[in-house]
């Protein structure tokens, strides 16, 4: 992508005013995005994005610059401009490069760039037909297709030199059901760190029908009561609550500044013994998985909470300096336009010993949330507010009528303490996570869990 001699010159220029570390991130990304509505392709966009990010450290100071001009004089100018914000007494030279190689943990068999658009459109139309024909009340279906190939080169003044190819594919299906001037939506968005083979092996019928079933079910739902109840949260995307309300609080971006309720608590009990919380970027072909992070560190399995005890944090290279702890392979960024910081990959609650049937049967009265919607969280406190896309009443250990308008309100660390049953059925859900280093692909996951008491906001009192 760039010659080693040019990269060495850029790293040297970035250190020219006394920095103690410099890094270059080179990115060449190809993307394809299409949408289909009313059975017709509505948008079809493809593009290529190329750029270089340059970073310099001096102690606890970090400076970042980027450019889309890869001519030598432009790169040297960008590096020197970044260096101007740094001042030091001694000038160091970059260490000789040691080129690293690895075997990808996420095999790709069919590069999307090599697949004709007609095959991609066929996938979309099949999903549309299945979702639209699910029931006469389904008035509209939108299918969105996405694939990308991201090629990166990362080198730094410590001698690191490593390259990676990341290929991701995703399909998003949204169904709208209408009856008597009432409208409800259902959504499913599976994705993977895979090539076009992901779509060919995808259980398309399941995801398309599930989006429509959700919308149709909510047409017949009753208003959700408000109050404090035991709440059962199903697997897969149900894990978004702990991703937002706990996962972000375990990232060094917050911990290093003591802006997290989990700061300085390693070794303390923060959850019941039945809760183990993990971030694992090595899970094969999962949407949030990586081979290396965006600082060139190998992906790994990070156990954050083990049997209720806080064991560690997600740490990037810069915050490792502040914390005096090693990087955990968690430095991620959206693109060359962002400096990396500590971010999640595939974060989930590990499987427990209960079956879903046992969890429901042991709940005399409460709320069962099958699918979560969007929400808001304050990462400094863990306070959250999440909409529920599909919920049900639980009465006498059995599922009852569907409920709409439910929201879950609480505090992440406190909610974590109230988990009293953990199921066996671990599942992952694909999503995008936005933070200071941009929007990145992540998985959220968990088995079915029960929280002994949560504040549920509804549409009427009880």
Description of the structure:
This protein has 2 domains: 4-219, PmbA/TldD fold (2-Layer Sandwich); 222-457, no CATH class. It has helices spanning 4-14, 72-83, 117-132, 197-201, 204-219, 240-247, 252-255, 317-323, 356-361, 412-417; strands spanning 21-37, 40-58, 61-67, 98-99, 138-156, 160-179, 182-188, 191-192, 222-223, 227-233, 277-280, 301-306, 309-310, 331-332, 341-342, 346-349, 365-378, 383-395, 398-404, 407-411, 419-422, 427-435, 438-446, 449-457. The chain contains 10 helices and 24 strands.
Q: Helical percent range? A: 10-25%
Give me the oligomer status: single chain
Provide the residue-averaged pLDDT: 96
Provide the number of structural domains.
2
How many strands in all? 24
- Taking pLDDT < 50 over at least 5 consecutive residues as the criterion, the unreliable ranges are none
Report the β-strand fraction as a percent range: 35-45%
* Class inferred from helices and paired strands: alpha+beta
Domain Metalloprotease TldD/E N-terminal: 23-85
Protein name: TldD/PmbA family protein
InterPro entries: Metalloprtase-TldD/E_C, Metalloprtase-TldD/E_cen_dom, Metalloprtase-TldD/E_N, Peptidase_U62_metallo, TldD, TldD/PmbA_N, TldD/PmbA_sf
Family: Belongs to the peptidase U62 family.
């Amino acid at each position: 992508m760039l010659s080693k001699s040019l990269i060495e010159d850029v790293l040297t220029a970035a250190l020219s005013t006394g920095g103690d570390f410099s890094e270059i991130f080179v990115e060449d990304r190809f993307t394809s995005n299409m949408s289909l509505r009313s059975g017709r392709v509505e948008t079809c966009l493809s593009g290529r994005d190329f750029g270089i990010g340059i970073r310099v450290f001096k102690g606890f100071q970090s400076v970042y610059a980027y450019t889309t001009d890869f001519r030598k004089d432009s790169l040297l100018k960008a590096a020197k401009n970044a260096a101007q914000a740094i001042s030091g007494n001694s000038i160091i030279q970059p260490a000789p490069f040691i080129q690293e190689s690895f075997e990808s943990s996420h095999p790709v068999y069919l590069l999307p760039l090599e697949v004709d658009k007609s095959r991609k459109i066929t996938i979309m139309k099949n999903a549309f037909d299945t979702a639209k024909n699910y029931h006469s009340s389904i008035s509209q279906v939108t299918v969105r297709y996405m694939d990308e190939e991201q090629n990166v080169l990362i080198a730094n003044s410590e001698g690191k030199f490593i390259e990676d190819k990341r290929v991701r594919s995703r399909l998003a299906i949204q169904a709208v059901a209408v009856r008597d001037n009432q409208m409800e939506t259902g959504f499913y968005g599976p994705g993977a760190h895979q090539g076009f083979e992901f779509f060919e092996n995808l259980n398309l019928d399941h995801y398309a029908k599930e989006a429509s079933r959700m919308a149709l079910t909510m047409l017949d739902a009753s208003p959700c009561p408000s109050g404090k109840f035991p709440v059962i949260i199903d697997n897969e995307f149900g894990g978004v609550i702990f991703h937002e309300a706990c996962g972000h609080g375990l990232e060094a971006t917050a911990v290093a500044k003591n802006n997290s309720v989990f700061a300085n608590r390693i070794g303390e009990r923060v959850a019941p013994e039945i809760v183990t919380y993990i971030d694992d970027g090595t899970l094969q072909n999962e949407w949030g998985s990586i081979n290396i992070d965006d600082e060139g560190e190998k992906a790994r399995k990070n156990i954050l909470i083990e049997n209720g005890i806080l064991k560690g944090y997600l740490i990037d290279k810069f915050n490792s300096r502040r914390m005096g702890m090693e990087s955990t392979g968690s430095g991620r960024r959206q693109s060359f336009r962002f400096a990396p910081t500590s971010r999640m990959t595939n974060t989930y609650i590990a499987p427990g010993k209960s079956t879903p049937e046992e969890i429901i049967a042991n709940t005399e009265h409460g709320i069962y949330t099958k699918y979560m919607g969007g929400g808001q969280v304050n990462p400094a406190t863990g306070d959250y507010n999440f909409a529920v896309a599909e919920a049900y009443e639980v009465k006498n250990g059995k599922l009852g009528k569907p409920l709409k308008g439910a929201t879950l309100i609480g505090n992440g660390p406190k909610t974590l303490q109230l988990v009293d049953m953990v199921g066996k059925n671990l599942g992952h859900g694909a999503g995008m996570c936005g933070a200071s280093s941009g929007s990145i692909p992540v998985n959220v996951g968990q088995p079915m869990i029960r929280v002994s008491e949560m504040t549920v906001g509804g549409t009427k009192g009880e």
